[in-house]
Amino acid sequence: MRYLQRTDRRKQVEAVLRALYIGTIGFLFTAAGASALQQIFLLAFGPSVFPPSAILSVLFGVLLVVYSLLILRSGFVAVNRPTVRTPSRRELAILGLATGGLLVVSFLVAEFTSYVGIPTSPSSIEQIARTGNPSFLLAFVPISVLFIGPGEELLYRNVIQEHLSATFSDWSAVLLASGIFTAHHLLQYQSATNAQTAMSLLSVFLLSLILGYAYVKTNNILVPALAHGLFDAIVFFHMWLEYS
Fold first, then answer.
1. Which pTM was predicted?
2. C-alpha dist (Å) from residue 188 to 116, 120, 166, 184, 239
3. Residue 64 near residue 30 (C-beta atoms within 8 A)
């Protein structure tokens, strides 16, 4: 019995380390690749065609999808290929609840941080909007739904969370995948104080829990991908209204 327990614990540790490796390499690969391709695009067409930040986000989302599909095809992790189907009525209801839940949690975190006097750290995109022309934020509305949401959810839900669920319970896998998802957002909020960064990462973690839950309940990657994309789109649109 003790041997079996040690074996199970070893498998769990290996699963977490492999998930961290996949997520970290994926983040570095997509960030470096998107930055390089962005520079090529800007050299070819100039910065006046599309906002550089929008180009970077599109490339980041596309490369996340490419990387995730390569991981799935490689057999490096024993997970199923993404389940993509037209959402049923039940799945549409979960999609609506998840999107609404993301908005409610985001609002509650904002209220809490205001109450304790520690605001969340502005993202790099918000910092650009504050100091320049915020009209570029409108480009992020479709980008969020078409690229950012699908790219991140395919990696963190269909690859990492699915991989972890083979050795952990579904809910433990949701917690662990959300922790990895949150850690990889650290650079996005690192320009603020430690307290502000912590508040921002807490918000990211709670939002990720909702997306992980939506994936567990539906086993349809479209549901968390659309919920994520719609939430981001609403946030960017609200940000545009605020800074215009």
1. 0.89
2. 22, 12, 30, 8, 17
3. yes
